[in-house]
Amino acid sequence: MTPSGGPLAPPARRRHASLVRLPNLLRRPLPEPPQALRRGPLKEGAFPSPLRSARLTSQVGVALGVCFAVCFLTGLISHLVQHPPSWFGWPSRPAGLYRVTQGLHVITGLASFPLLGVKLWSVYPRLFAWPPARTIAHAVERASIAVLVAASLFQLIGGLFNITRWYGALPFFFTTAHYWMAWLTIGALLVHIGVKLPVVRDALTRRLPAAPGHRLTRRQLLGTTGAAAGLITIATAGQTVAPLAPVSVLAPRRPTSGPQRLPVNKTATGAGVRDLALDPAFRLVVAGPRGQVSLAPDDLAALSQHTVILPIACVEGWSATGTWTGVRLRDLVTLVGSDPRSSSADVESMQPAGRYRRSTVAPPHVRDPWTLIALRLNGAPLHLDHGYPARLIAPNRPGVLQTKWVARIVVREGS
Ligand SMILES: Nc1nc2c(c(=O)[nH]1)N[C@H]1C(S)=C(S)[C@@H](COP(=O)(O)O)O[C@H]1N2
Ligand SMILES: [Mo]
């Protein structure tokens, strides 16, 4: 390499100069498109509603930004809990924390529907802005908004499909797509906020005269939008906030529906475990580096029994509380000679295949006295669809990790 200022410096300087010119290049006016194209919605004044204003767009935008931020962060938590990287630890208490974060995730996602609808209505005439792009920088900014709108709609509609369990309608594995698209959405949103911040600040601080002689004022529209978002929340939040259940007419789930007053996602027949679960030869195998035991239902019932009140909190946003009775996982770990304070456990279902047939219980949950291999629910033996003869129930854990029809527990020492 030649040090700068040496005999070969000029090409480097030339490169530098072209970099300096780039912003100018991006801002150089593009040629005007032909006037003959200016018809229909492209005509001047094609969208006369005086309700559309930078102020309306900004106010709805702020509310939407808050919803997206909460939705993104709670979604990230859910992803990390289900796929923990080595640096991530998730506590077992407070027991209902995941129920709250995931409830918020689904509630803010649903409340975003009316907000995004009104926001898009308030700006869609700009689709027909004339000229379509003034400069290259303007064209890039418009393209980034197209990405933001597409990604947002993908997230909201995909999420809605998931909570209403139309899985079959999606041609890809939902959670992976939802996770990566969330980063794209939030990235495009940050760019959008960065670009629009001066406009938003100006629109929110300047007082505008009311639109004269129009039937609907901006305040009324904002009030209606807020009411719509609130109504959607009340009409769906009952799937996790029990007192709202009677008015939650849009909630895909009622917290008390299903056998033993608890919802079911995967039934025993659906999981293909019916015959295995009812087999009298069933044994729960607990295997660790220091020993192994094989427990018949009577053996399990003879161990010390404990009762806990814990929710099932599904990633779909519904949650429901049950009274569970069974054996502490940490007692089973002790039974095979390992230390529950520093052990983790892989809990495996008799379900032959499927994404949720196995889950890992990390040390904070293994040692928690509320983590049970439950045998009973709400005062009766577990219903077949709730995981009979034995299922995992632990505090502060997503429903997908509360493995049903447990047949084998592999204890690992160290982590
Ligand atoms: N073996 C197995 N366990 C499972 C599942 C599954 O598909 N297979 N589904 C999980 C999901 S997504 C949830 S929300 C809870 C629901 O428990 P419940 O049906 O008893 O309410 O079980 C979990 N345990
Ligand atoms: Mo779930």
Please specify the SSE layout and strand pairing.
Elements lengths: L8 H19 L26 H29 L14 H27 L12 H28 L10 H32 L12 H20 L30 H4 L2 H5 L5 E5 L2 E5 L1 H6 L3 E8 L5 E10 H7 L7 E7 L8 E4 L1 H5 L4 E6 L2 E2 L9 E3 L12 E8 L2
Parallel strand pairs: 1-10
Antiparallel strand pairs: 1-2, 3-4, 4-7, 5-6, 5-10, 7-8, 7-9
The chain binds the ligand Nc1nc2c(c(=O)[nH]1)N[C@H]1C(S)=C(S)[C@@H](COP(=O)(O)O)O[C@H]1N2 and molybdenum atom.
Task: Describe this protein with a few key phrases.
single chain; 415 residues; alpha+beta; Sulfite Oxidase, Chain A, domain 2; 2 domains; five-stranded mixed β-sheet; five-stranded antiparallel β-sheet; 11 helices; 10 strands; elongated; binds ligand MTE; binds molybdenum atom
Distance between the termini: 49 Å
- Please work out how many helical segments DSSP would assign: 11
| pLDDT averaged over residues | 91
Would you count the extended β strands for me?
10
Structural class: alpha+beta
* Main beta-sheet annotation: 5 strands, mixed
List the secondary-structure elements in sequence, H or E: HHHHHHHHEEHEEHEEHEEEE
What order do the strands of the largest sheet run in, or round the barrel if closed? 2-1-10-5-6
Strand content: 5-15%
Portion of residues within helices: 40-55%
Number of domains: 2
Envelope shape: elongated
Which molecules are bound in this entry? the ligand Nc1nc2c(c(=O)[nH]1)N[C@H]1C(S)=C(S)[C@@H](COP(=O)(O)O)O[C@H]1N2, molybdenum atom
Q: Could you list the spans in which at least 5 consecutive residues all have pLDDT below 50?
A: 1-9
Give the C-alpha Rg: 28 Å
